[in-house]
Fold this sequence. Notes:
The protein is an alpha+beta fold. Helix content is 39%, strand content 17%. Strands 1-2-10-9 form a four-stranded mixed beta sheet. The longest helix has 18 residues, at 184-201. The model is unreliable at 203-212 (pLDDT under 50).
Amino acid sequence: MVNPHAKIPPIFQIGDVLLSSEILTENFCCDLDACKGQCCVEGDAGAPLTPDELGCIEAALDTVWGDLSASAQAVIDKQGVAYTDQEGDLVTSIVGGKDCVFTCHEGGCCLCALEKAYRAGAAGFCKPISCALYPIREKRFPNGTVGIAYNRWDICRDAIKKGNELSLPIYRFLEGPLTRRFGAAWYKELCEVAAELLTTCGSPTGSSPHAP
């Protein structure tokens, strides 16, 4: 079977950002009812943070404190809301080697206490951009270039299923976070490049209903 996306370059660039073509060709849409927010409690490190985000989280800590588990509170009391991991990255603190300290539970789902407070109007910070961008992961290079790529994780199989049902490509699903991270003009250019590449190199995986 011929891959309709075979001619799309595996990596393309917009501004100073290098992107994996899977961001255009793969479908994705979080399905919290199915996955129950497992991305907050699986893994072996916390969510990557910027220094500015660390300050915002510390400012919101008193607001969300009551939603955190006793174990999470103990970890924060001991080492703070963040630590430096083995790769030298600043990440949120975790409980028991996996759960983010800002995980809270409601209706059988794992939620982010920071996002919960933000949506309730109680805090001005939503959540780290690294969380908002998932399933995209970001890597910074010494020359100032940023690379973003699709990170496949088996616990997100329901998100892939829902994305396919909706014919919703990753870059469309993440319109808000990508705009937050790189700006509206950059995202507009991404949509224009996507339309050109997907039209020239093969029909997108159902992204035509969302064409710019």
